[in-house]
């Protein structure tokens, strides 16, 4: 993987778009009848011990063939899986039970019966990831929606104050990670603008620093200048090197007000289906000024043009840099997407998105259809045989309703978004970017 200029990446993407546009049957965003998720009761719990440590990879996931052997969860099971815990910044914790209404209306959402070929994860042959190192692009939509979570994961803005990420970035199934009490989210920061007279925005003169100024925000930004000042007698080469270093992405760090994780992720609650609930929502103390990305629901990614997904995250092997990739989905179950996108630890929690036309409009819109979970060891047949995959948790109508409940406080707002159009998929000229 190299630092490929966006001017090179863009024509490649355009060629891909042209190829996809040639497909006869294309799709717009389907409109679903979204069920209602309502709070039933909230009770206080004792404070967590925050003793867990981040896991580089997960194991015990029940794969496609394994899931085919399991009975479909009942309404009571789903309500248990979707009930959730909330942890607040002061360390307190609550449990909220929920009720689900309108589930029987989701007749078109059926489990995809498919088998899968298997490959090894992370980087397959030629590394197809692109490092978006130029702030001109990394701080622009859609890349700007990607955020860095202080526990070592990525996430995506789904509202000005909410971040969607992977549950295992917060909780290991038994306890919350030791970094959760001081959890922060880093949003990519644009290069400071300077006006006439050498003054920065806010009236500060170029080159001057207030007493006590630092390159960090909340103690977590030390990337902007590599900790080096400008000395005399340095060579042009050294100055150029420092100039490149100063262009590395920097972050504006914000504290997390509260964290919500579905009980389906916890050990012993949903059994082998825990990976289906590997998602969480973080509420920020301060709203970001960055455009967020909406959630979307689609029953089959493989049936879309090219069956391609996209996501950007902060891979561990590229510290501080945003890494973008796209690939086709190889197999899919009702709740999981199996694919071979090149990825490294740190990208877990990234928002997986596609781009389709909105019904009845010429406007294209990207929506998040899943959360990248990362490398997982999957129980293939239910007999303990383990195989590794790259896995993403897909947004189903039920998960959409739950996440909306967390973000808006009332999932009926999300239901209204989908009731304007009957459940259908339109045939139109479309492509994915």
From TrEMBL:
Comp. bias regions, Basic residues: 191-211, 229-241
Stretches for region Disordered: 188-252
Subcellular location, record wording: Secreted
Peptidase S1 domain residues: 139-178
GO molecular function list: serine-type endopeptidase activity
PROSITE patterns reported for this sequence: TRYPSIN_HIS
Broad class of the protein's primary localization: secreted
Keywords: Glycoprotein, Secreted, Serine protease homolog, Signal
Region forming the signal peptide: 1-21
InterPro entries: Glutamyl_endopeptidase (IPR050966), Peptidase_S1_PA (IPR009003), Peptidase_S1_PA_chymotrypsin (IPR043504), Trypsin_dom (IPR001254), TRYPSIN_HIS (IPR018114)
UniProt entry tagged with the keyword tRNA processing: no
Domain of life assignment: Eukaryota
GO cellular component: extracellular region
GO BP annotation list: proteolysis
UniProt key word Transferase: no
Stated family: Belongs to the peptidase S1 family.
Stated name of the protein: Inactive serine protease 35
Organism: Oreochromis niloticus
Lineage: Eukaryota, Metazoa, Chordata, Craniata, Vertebrata
């Amino acid at each position: 993987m190299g630092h490929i200029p966006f001017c090179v990446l863009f024509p490649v993407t355009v060629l891909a778009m042209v190829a996809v546009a040639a497909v006869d049957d294309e799709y717009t965003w389907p409109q679903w009848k979204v069920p209602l998720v309502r709070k039933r009761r909230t009770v206080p719990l004792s404070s967590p011990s925050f003793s867990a440590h981040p896991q580089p990879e997960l194991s015990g996931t029940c794969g496609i063939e394994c899931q085919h052997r399991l009975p479909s969860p009942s309404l009571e099971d789903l309500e248990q899986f979707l009930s959730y815990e909330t942890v607040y910044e002061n360390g307190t914790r609550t449990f909220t039970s929920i009720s689900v209404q309108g589930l029987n209306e989701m007749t078109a959402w059926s489990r995809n019966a498919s088998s899968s070929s298997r490959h090894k994860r992370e980087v397959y042959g030629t590394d197809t990831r692109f490092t978006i190192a130029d702030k001109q692009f990394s701080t622009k939509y859609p890349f700007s929606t990607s955020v860095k979570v202080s526990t070592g994961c990525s996430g995506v803005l789904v509202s000005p104050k909410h971040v969607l990420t992977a549950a295992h970035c917060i909780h290991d199934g038994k306890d919350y990670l030791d970094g959760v009490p001081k959890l922060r989210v880093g949003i990519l920061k644009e290069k400071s603008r300077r006006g006439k007279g050498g003054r920065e925005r806010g009236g500060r003169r170029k080159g001057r620093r207030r007493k006590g100024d630092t390159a960090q925000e909340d103690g977590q930004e030390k990337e902007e200048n590599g900790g080096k000042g400008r000395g005399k007698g340095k060579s042009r080469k050294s100055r150029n090197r420092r100039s490149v270093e100063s262009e590395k992405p920097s972050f504006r760090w914000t504290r997390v007000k509260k964290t919500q994780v579905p009980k389906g992720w916890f050990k012993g609650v949903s059994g082998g289906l825990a990976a289906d609930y590997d998602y969480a929502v973080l509420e920020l103390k301060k709203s970001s000024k960055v455009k967020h990305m909406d959630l979307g629901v689609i029953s089959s990614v493989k049936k879309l043009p090219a069956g391609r997904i996209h996501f950007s995250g902060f891979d561990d092997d590229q510290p501080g840099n945003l890494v973008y990739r796209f690939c086709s989905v190889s197999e899919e179950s009702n709740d999981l997407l199996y694919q071979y996108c090149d990825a490294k630890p740190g990208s877990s929690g990234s928002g997986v998105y596609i781009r389709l036309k909105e019904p009845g409009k010429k406007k294209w819109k990207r929506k998040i259809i899943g959360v990248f979970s990362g490398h997982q060891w999957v129980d293939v047949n239910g007999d303990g045989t383990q195989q590794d995959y790259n896995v993403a948790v897909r947004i189903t109508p039920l998960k959409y309703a739950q996440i909306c409940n967390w973000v808006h406080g009332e999932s009926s707002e999300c239901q209204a978004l989908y009731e304007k159009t009957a459940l259908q998929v339109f045939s139109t000229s479309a492509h994915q970017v």
